[in-house]
Design brief:
- There is one protein chain.
- By secondary structure, the protein is α/β, with parallel strands linked by helices.
- It contains nine helices and seven strands.
- The strands form two sheets. The chain has a five-stranded parallel beta sheet, sandwiched between helices. Strands 5-6 form a two-stranded antiparallel sheet.
- β5 and β6 form a beta hairpin.
- The longest helix has 15 residues.
Length: about 220
């Protein structure tokens, strides 16, 4: 059985959550979302301030959290990192960690999307506070308006999806995360994916690449 170690990144609102589930299901890898990890720790006063402000969690905190998780048994047969790394420093720490365990990154998928489209999408996003289901009232609406398809809970808008916080998140992304494109380009492992098409078409690009290029 092939072992796939993937990284998925892109700007806020690019549809990473949807594609992460697709990738995890299709290639049987553990989906590790740092955003989910942080939100699950919302009662932690240190982490909660970063969640509501749009600022990145400090490197030392997020690195420790992720690398500790990657050492668990279920990650040995493959993983998908969603939301990590977000800085060059984090990427370098990840590389060193994987090298020590004779693992490597199979591919880095970057979902490319214009800023105007990102703001529009996030304003339309609704999530389930119970099961984490994510919907878009225009692109991927729930079967019943305002109700989660999966568990029947009432959908809400995330606090960090308001316009001011979205703009702050995009500024942080442009400054700190986008240089990762160059970092992984130099390693020859990044694959740019067109995020303007439907979610099914986005995944089709990812699936075709993996099946034809990743050993």
């Amino acid at each position: 059985m092939k072992q796939f170690n993937f990284i998925l990144f892109g700007p806020p609102g690019a549809g990473k959550g949807t594609q992460a589930k697709n990738i995890s299901d299709e290639f049987e890898v553990v989906h590790l979302s740092t955003g989910d990890m942080i939100r699950e720790s919302k009662n932690d006063p240190v982490l909660s301030q970063y969640l509501t402000s749009g600022h990145l969690v400090p490197d030392e905190v997020i690195i420790e959290m992720v690398l500790k998780r990657l050492q668990k048994e279920d990650c040995k047969n493959g993983f998908l990192l969603d939301g990590f790394p977000r800085t060059i420093f984090q990427a370098e720490k990840l590389d060193k960690f994987l090298q020590k365990s004779n693992r490597r990154v199979s591919a880095v998928f970057y979902i490319d999307l214009a800023q105007e489209e990102i703001i529009k999408r996030l304003a339309q996003r609704r999530v389930c506070p119970k099961c984490g289901g994510s919907f878009n009232i225009q692109l991927r609406p729930p079967k019943q308006e305002g109700i989660c398809d999966f568990c029947g809970e009432k959908l809400v808008q995330r606090k960090d999806d308001n316009i001011d916080t979205v703009k702050e998140r995009l500024e942080v992304y442009e400054k700190q995360t986008k240089p990762l494109i160059k970092y992984y380009e130099e390693k020859g492992s990044i694959i740019k994916v067109d995020g303007t098409v439907s979610p099914d078409k986005v995944f089709e690009q990812i699936e075709n690449f993996v099946k034809n290029n990743v050993e």
